[in-house]
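Review form for a predicted model. The reviewer records the input and the model, then writes brief findings.
Reviewer: anonymous (R2)
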Amino acid sequence: MRSVEAGIRAKVEKFIFGTDDEDLEAVVGKILEERHMSLSIAESCTGGLIAHLLTNVPGSSKYFDRGVVAYSNLAKTDILNVQESDLRKYGAVSSRVAEAMADGIRRTSGSSIGLSTTGIAGPSGGTKEKPVGLVWIGYANASTVISREFQFGNDRLRTKERAAYAALELVRRQVLGIS
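Model under review:
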């Protein structure tokens, strides 16, 4: 049986974050703690869910600095220093704004990593260009600012949950250098 597991692991290792009862938020926390890194989060469409998941883990204060729910454009500009011109040109749900949010919370907090979510959870608010379920996740550290686009469907709660876990997975992969 171990040889079967080893064979599977060899092919899909980068997709496996834990074993048995390990959950992603605890694994991410352990990785950050081991590397003496801190994380701050700017959430829009996830409404604080990522912060909730992380703070459910005992000892999370060792690596989790702060979470901001910047739901309005005003909050994005006031708290995270997102440029109004970027909001007008690209819209709140965009790669550019997700990256600015992540970098803004990282710089404001002084954390090693900034993470952000911005999207259209639905059930309304979507357009042909930006449909319901569209989420951009931003990640920033001292040398890298990136974003990833996701489409999670039209169920509001599932979109929020999927976005929260996709954001944590992005942190895991970036810190571990997994593409």
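Findings: The two ends are 29 Å apart (CA to CA).
Further findings: The chain is about 45% helix and 20% strand.
Recommendation: see findings above.
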